[in-house]
Request: fold
Amino acid sequence: MTIVQALVLGAVQGLAEFLPISSSAHLILARFFFGWPDPGLAFDVALHVGTLVGVLAYFWSELTGLFFAGLTQPRSRDGRLFWYIVLASVPGGLFGVTLEEYAQTVFRTPALIAVTLALMGIVLWASDRWGRKKRGLKEISIWDSLLVGFSQALAIIPGVSRSGITMTAGLLGGLTREAAAHFSFLLSVPIIAGAALWELRHISWRHIDFAFVGGVFTSALLGFLAIKFLLRYLRRGSFALFAWYRLLLAAATFLMLFFKA
Reply:
């Protein structure tokens, strides 16, 4: 893997992890479009560690506050939100471990990714268009956490998007756009951390070189900026932009498959 490939894949991971467009799909399709070799599971895990650093850097103060509130004042609004995040993380973690083999093989075909990109684009647009969008982050309930948590389990399929499906579920539950995105970002911390810890057994010091480090740094930086951008954008903008992007990328993938056939 060259330094250019590592930096491009790091940028793709950082941006697509937190925007509702599917980072796993983009990493697979980037290699498919450019004909690049698979850099291996170790590099994929490292890129996720990079995005974990990005989200921790952005929400560090809030996350520490929620953590201590959850331990010392579990009945407070922040304390309840902490435990809702924990609860919502369970389904995704269980499905991730159970279906890991399929996620690394069957689910990674460009044709399936194109279908899921398009379908989830339509669902995202519909939930953004018709969701009530009345409740903020502090009004999240245990039922919201369960809905978002079980929806997150579908993100094992590339093209669905962890951030996309959790934001969609939040919108369907009546959360505002900002609240749905904010909750999705907070929820990303345990799920990304858990996945990274689970897969760290595949990484050894021999994997680490300049390209490897460059990809991780780019992933962290672009992840941080993607979070900042989306939270600001959603104050006035809608998810329609990302729904249209998903449909266009799906169409481009089908065209590439047609010409390569």
